[in-house]
Specification:
The chain has about 290 residues and is of the alpha/beta class. The protein is built from twelve helices and eight strands. It has an eight-stranded parallel beta barrel with strand order 1-2-3-4-5-6-7-8, surrounded by five helices. α4 links the parallel β2 and β3. α3 runs parallel beside α12, α10 packs antiparallel against α11 and α11 crosses α12. It is globular and about 50 Å long. About 40% of the residues are buried.
């Protein structure tokens, strides 16, 4: 089933993101993770993609096939454009289609010093524009409620996002954030800009002080005062911060669902315990 059909069903959409483990022994344990995630009844599970010909890309497609065939959950394959040319993308798209996958999350991808950009797909909109007329995929795009780290301002951010949608993105999945108010303002601005496709908030629970610092550095996530107080109070107590981070994420999700968002996309970090605990906390409202 395509994402466009899933989001048009009228139901709140619960989805997860996982990544292919790099170590072979961890890859062999992915079934234990997928079994728990599948039991939580998500509408789909997205699988991240490597860069520059990484062997993880084949793992991504293999895992997506497993999700669909063995666990009967719709998979979404992440596909990055920056390190690749049209021949590469054609090869990946053929493999993805052969695996029975109908949905792609089209991304520019991060700059990787180990792989020179091919200069063909410099933006996610370029990748979407190429895939849409050539393949029968439903395409999701990424959005950034607090702006992409390289965006000069909100107006530029929205213009670029509109390009993705005009190029053929059917659904938007957001980068993680901790301020729901920032997300609501972003959605309001996106609607004013003529972006009318589903916009799903992405939530990643904060489980350690280190992860908070990484999120702020790499994603530019804004930390609301309430959240900063949690980190300040419990940052030296791993167990307490884990519990507080879970509670904050659940509270965030409840507020988002109460305010009629299209659903929730949960960044699981391949931790099924986290996903299950959050799903238990929102079981009766989604």
């Amino acid at each position: 089933m395509k994402l466009s059909e899933i989001y048009n069903s009228g139901n709140k959409v619960l989805s997860f993101e996982i990544f292919p483990p790099k170590k072979e022994e961890e890859l062999q344990n992915i079934d234990a993770t997928l079994e728990i995630l599948a039991d939580l009844n998500p509408a789909y599970i997205s699988v991240t993609f490597g860069a520059g010909g990484s062997s993880n890309n084949n793992k991504t497609i293999d895992i997506a096939r497993k999700i669909k065939e063995q666990y009967k959950v719709e998979p979404v394959v992440h596909l990055t454009g920056l390190p690749y040319d049209k021949t590469d993308i054609d090869e990946f798209c053929k493999k993805i289609a052969d695996a029975g996958v109908e949905n792609i999350l089209a991304l520019r991808g991060d700059v990787n010093p180990n792989f020179e950009p091919k200069g063909v797909f410099n933006h996610a909109s370029d990748l979407i524009e190429y895939i849409k007329p050539n393949y029968d995929f439903c395409i999701a795009g990424a959005c950034y409620p607090e702006n992409h780290p390289t965006s000069p301002d909100t107006v530029s951010e929205l213009r670029n996002l509109k390009k993705k949608v005009d190029a053929g993105a059917d659904v938007l999945l957001s980068q993680l954030f901790f301020s729901n108010e920032n997300f609501y303002k972003f959605v309001e601005n996106a609607r004013i800009a003529g972006i009318d496709c589903p916009i799903t908030p992405g939530i990643m629970p904060c489980l350690s002080a280190t992860s908070v610092k990484r999120m702020v550095t790499t994603c530019g996530a804004v930390l609301p005062p309430k959240f900063e107080k949690i980190v300040e109070k419990y940052g030296d107590n791993k167990e307490a911060l884990f519990d507080a981070g879970m509670y904050y994420a659940i509270s965030q999700i409840i507020d988002l669902l109460t305010n009629d968002t299209d659903g929730i996309h949960l960044y699981t970090m391949n931790n099924p315990v986290v996903a299950k605990r959050i799903c238990d906390g929102i079981r009766n409202i989604i």
